[in-house]
Amino acid sequence: RAVLLGSTLALCALGLVLMPMGPSVAVFALASVVLGIGSGVSQPMTMVVLSDHVDPSRRGAALGARLSVNFLALGLATMTLGAVVPIIGYPIAFIAGALLPVSAAAMVGSAGSRLEPPREAGPPRATF
Predict the structure, then answer these.
(1) What integer best gives the mean pLDDT of the chain?
(2) Statement: residue 121 has pLDDT above 70
(3) Ramachandran sector of residue 123 (left: φ over 0; alpha: ψ -120 to 50; beta: rest)
(4) Where residue 63 falls among pLDDT bands split at 50, 70, 90?
(5) Which of 68, 75, 11, 5 is nearest to 38 (CA)?
(6) Measured at the alpha carbon of residue 126, what is the angle toward residues 121 and 127, in degrees to the nearest 5?
(7) What residues have CB less than 8 Å from 2, skipping those under 6 apart?
């Protein structure tokens, strides 16, 4: 799971870096696809990891808190970028934005096996 999550976060960063650098609409579209694949896999993957590490009776609250923090971050990022982009420009803003998934990928890499589901007593179960 750590490898998959780290890889998809790296795809998010790559898409963000490529987006303002593209000399054509085709490169911009490719960067959008890369970003979409990265975020499309990493978002649900974080929910899976969270679900595995929370007591089942608290799973709904934990996933709700994750979603709330996600929307709060989205709102704060939008307001912050609205104030900063006129000063630094779009390319620098996209590159600076890529630092967030790069940092998250580094944290995932350091967490490593702790992202795997906890072992339970009893017969082994299939994990994906």
Answers:
(1) 87
(2) no
(3) beta
(4) very high
(5) 11
(6) 100
(7) 108, 109, 111, 112, 113, 115, 116
Exposed, middle or buried by CB within 10 Å (0-12, 13-18, 19+), for 119? Answer: exposed
Interhelix angle 59-88/90-111, nearest 10 degrees: 150
CA torsion angle 15 37 73 45 (round to 10): -140
Say how far apart CA 80 and CA 84 lie, in whole Å.
Answer: 6
Confidence of residue 122 (pLDDT cuts 50, 70, 90): very low
The label of the residue with tokens 């795809």 reads 11
Q: Which residue has the tokens 């490169």?
A: 27
